[in-house]
């Protein structure tokens, strides 16, 4: 699990998400899809379809005035085309398991070498497997309240052009979102803005299969290469303190321009205290800065594992005083691969240490619950099985 500490980070990571049901493609995004579709279909097929299957005046008017994202992203796919004649190119888009194949690695190698300028020694099959294949997320199927099945788990969204794999979207499909982990493509399709096409295909998938939200990954405002993520709207940003979702609008972007760490809930608190025109730092921010200075030596030396989560004022982490309200004694515990589940309170050492005895097992479990969220405590299972067992 990765959870960023925006306060202590030089380049804070923010979680953002798009409401796919409200998404309206910009003119540039619409043109990107239409341009790619024309390339795939070719002039001959386009003219023949118009001749053999002419649209009525109302249909033509509707197409000109209303851009149906799902219709357009599938328009040039081979399975959707009316043939003959054949299209200029054959486009096939599939959702596949996130297993390693040499075909996928070839795309990864080209992308890392050409786009990220990595040397051959850094681009390995093992690195690709660890980074983008065989996720620990289990693949399964859920049924929504309307009876519609929805795939869950990690998948590779594969784009093949004329039989060649040219792009891969690495996705985590979760109950209420499509989470974009990584997108990679072969240099041969660079001119068609594959990153933009991939995002639009993923948003369409979110709409089509009922996931609702599209998560484009962490957003770092100070990184120019990440600005493309906010080209899709309406988006929302997770407040690091309150864990509420706020519109990622002009007001929020202006705040991010002024300072690296932004919490709208803190801004509102500051304004209510009459400091609306004063310095942007709150007392809490100042206090954290002092603590960060004190901890700088251990942070720089890579000793963060020795810093207790409850002592560093990390955004969104509940205070230690709230731990008394958590049922830490009944968290599921797995000690054998095929054995029964136990409870944390069944451990002999459990009652011998207090939650404040850090480092210690109970203190570590409290950290885990704080990081994941106490609302999920009933769904946590601690795996204590021996590695390889």
UniProtKB/TrEMBL annotation:
Q: Which InterPro entries match?
A: Acyl_CoA_acyltransferase, Arg-tRNA-P_Trfase_1_euk, N-end_Aminoacyl_Trfase, N-end_Aminoacyl_Trfase_C, N-end_Aminoacyl_Trfase_N
The record's GO molecular-function terms, alphabetically, read: arginyl-tRNA--protein transferase activity
Give every N-end aminoacyl transferase N-terminal domain span.
Answer: 1-31
In what ranges is there compositional bias, type Basic and acidic residues? 288-302
Keywords from the UniProt entry: Acyltransferase, Transferase, Ubl conjugation pathway
Q: Where is the N-end rule aminoacyl transferase C-terminal domain?
A: 103-239
Catalytic reactions on record: an N-terminal L-alpha-aminoacyl-[protein] + L-arginyl-tRNA(Arg) = an N-terminal L-arginyl-L-aminoacyl-[protein] + tRNA(Arg) + H(+)
Q: Its Enzyme Commission number?
A: 2.3.2.8
One Gene Ontology cellular component term attached to this UniProt record is: cytoplasm
Positions of the UniProt region annotated as Disordered: 267-303
Signal peptide as annotated in the record: none
What is this enzyme's class at the first EC digit? transferase
Name the domain of life this protein comes from: Eukaryota
Q: Which family does it belong to?
A: Belongs to the R-transferase family.
Relate the protein's function as given in its record. Involved in the post-translational conjugation of arginine to the N-terminal aspartate or glutamate of a protein. This arginylation is required for degradation of the protein via the ubiquitin pathway.
Report what the protein is called.
Answer: Arginyl-tRNA--protein transferase 1
Q: Which organism is it from?
A: Fusarium floridanum
